[in-house]
């Protein structure tokens, strides 16, 4: 899998990015990928790591959970980002979830229309009085 960390913040703020894997037995593995200064690839103020490769040997049998996190350290103004590409694997349940193609029912639209018409009638009566 490929990743690219982009810092949109500056020192003394850090905004690190992590890869977190939860093993089938529930134990977590946390890898610091990059930060502005400190752990992982240090990119400096408004820097970026360039595309890097992340891989992990999975030794347990069963289902793993993986998450990628970018934090916003000490402020909430400038957010850094982590871009991912070439991710392989399977999801259970299916991911991304199926897109719902629901369309409002004609009855819902009719009810909305009746409500708006009622408001119009009430306003007209109020103006006439």
TrEMBL record:
InterPro entries per the UniProt record, alphabetical: Ice-binding_C (IPR013424), VPLPA-CTERM (IPR022472)
Domain Ice-binding protein C-terminal as annotated: residue spans: 102-124
Domain of life: Bacteria
Name of the molecule in the record: Ice-binding protein C-terminal domain-containing protein
């Amino acid at each position: 899998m490929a990743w690219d960390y982009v810092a949109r913040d500056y020192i003394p703020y850090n905004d690190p990015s992590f890869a977190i894997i939860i093993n089938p037995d529930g134990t977590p593995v946390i890898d610091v990928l990059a930060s502005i200064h400190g752990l992982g690839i240090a990119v400096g103020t408004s820097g970026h790591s360039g595309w890097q490769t992340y891989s992990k040997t999975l030794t347990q049998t069963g289902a793993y959970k993986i998450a990628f996190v970018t934090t916003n350290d000490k402020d909430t103004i400038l957010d850094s980002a982590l871009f991912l590409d070439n991710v392989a694997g399977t999801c259970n349940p299916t991911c991304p979830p199926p897109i719902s193609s629901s369309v409002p029912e004609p009855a819902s639209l009719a009810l909305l229309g009746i409500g708006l018409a009622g408001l119009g009638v009430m306003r007209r009566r109020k103006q006439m009085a």
